[in-house]
């Protein structure tokens, strides 16, 4: 199991660059008049800045990929078709499913697809599906490739992603930016490999730390306070506890000043 969508969710909430986002938020008449080459350059700059913030290396840890726990093996022993992972977090509960089925086969019928990325039919050697909250109104669902490297789990590509609008929550100013963050975040993770080390066991759950493949920590995306657990498979709208608005506000308050400025202007 890997933390692909969890890392992306954290990045989307905390790390979107102000200047790049502001450049993308053009009014319709301006957008129509903008030079296509200039618009493409702005998008590329936004993606590059977001990638740099998401994957900025921290300290290097010797032996980072040796001796970590293997939650996937535990789940498979119990039956991956009868059990899911749940990540318990103050940003809402995420669900991870070890399956080669399509994302849409797990989503509740009343969730509306707001955007998509990639292809539902692209081949993946060791697929896993993850559903994570981007806000109390939006869920990102990703289908990605995972692999085991010594004592850690890694992911090297996301082949398909859907942005779902979940009923039951009013639209906020922060929500208006989510579709842009969805696109920027996925583009920022293209051709990037990152890994997760687990500590714990089935009875207590597992704590997680994020790393680059060379052993440097990913401090911008690290969430060691979150807890990975195994639960019986069930409906996502039951398992995925929605983040409280207060938690989203707290995340916004802890964002860099540039990101806060963007949200003040629109985000």
Topology:
Layout: H1 4-14, H2 18-24, H3 28-33, H4 36-54, H5 71-78, E1 83-88, E2 94-97, E3 112-118, E4 127-133, E5 138-149, E6 152-165, H6 173-189, E7 194-201, E8 205-211, E9 227-232, H7 236-239, H8 245-253, H9 257-265
Antiparallel strand pairs: 1-2, 1-9, 2-4, 3-6, 4-5, 5-6, 6-7, 7-8
Helix pairs in contact: 1-6, 2-4, 2-9, 4-6
Q: What's the short story on this structure?
A:
The chain is an alpha+beta fold and 267 residues long. The protein has helices at residues 4-14, 18-24, 28-33, 36-54, 71-78, 173-189, 236-239, 245-253, 257-265, and strands at 83-88, 94-97, 112-118, 127-133, 138-149, 152-165, 194-201, 205-211, 227-232.
For the structure shown, list the relevant keywords:
267 residues, alpha+beta, 27% strand, 34% helix, 9 helices, disordered C terminus, nine-stranded antiparallel β-sheet, 9 strands
């Amino acid at each position: 199991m890997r933390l692909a969508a969890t890392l992306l969710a954290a990045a989307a909430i905390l790390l979107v660059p102000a200047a790049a986002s502001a450049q993308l938020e053009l009014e319709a008449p301006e957008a129509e008049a903008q030079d296509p080459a200039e618009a493409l350059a702005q998008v590329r700059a936004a993606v590059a800045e977001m990638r740099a913030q998401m994957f900025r290396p921290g300290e290097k840890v010797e032996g980072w990929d040796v001796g970590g726990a293997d939650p996937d093996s535990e789940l498979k022993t119990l039956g991956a078709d009868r059990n899911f992972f749940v990540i318990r977090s103050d940003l809402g509960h995420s669900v991870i499913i070890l399956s080669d089925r399509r994302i849409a086969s797990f989503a509740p019928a009343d969730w509306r697809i707001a955007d998509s990325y990639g292809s539902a039919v692209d081949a993946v050697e060791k697929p896993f599906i993850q559903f994570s909250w981007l806000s109390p109104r939006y869920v990102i669902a990703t289908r990605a490739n995972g692999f085991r490297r010594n004592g850690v789990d890694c992911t090297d590509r996301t082949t398909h992603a859907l942005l779902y609008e979940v009923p039951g929550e009013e639209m906020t100013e922060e929500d208006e930016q989510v579709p842009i963050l969805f696109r920027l975040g996925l583009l920022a993770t293209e051709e990037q490999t990152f890994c997760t080390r687990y500590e714990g066991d089935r009875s207590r759950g597992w704590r997680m730390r994020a790393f680059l493949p060379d052993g440097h920590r990913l401090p911008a995306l690290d969430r060691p306070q979150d807890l990975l657990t195994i639960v019986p498979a069930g409906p996502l709208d039951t398992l995925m506890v929605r983040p409280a608005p207060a938690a989203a506000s707290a995340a916004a308050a802890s964002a860099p000043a540039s990101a806060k400025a963007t949200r003040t202007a629109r985000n």
